[in-house]
Amino acid sequence: MLLLGALLLGAAGLSAGSWYGGRGAVSLSDDRARKVAAELLPETEPVGGVFVRGYRYGVFLAADDFGSAHAEFHYGYRPDCTLSDQLRRNAASRGWEDLHRVPGEPCDGWRAQADGLLVTLTHRATGSALRVAPAAPDRLLAVTLVGGLVGAAGGAALFWLVTRRRPPVPRLVRVLAVVALLPGAVLTWSDLLTDGLAEPVWPIWRSLAPLGVPLTLVLLLAAWIVLTRRPNPTGPATETTAAVPGTSA
Question: What integer pLDDT is reported at residue 5 of this predicted model?
Answer without folding.
Answer: 86
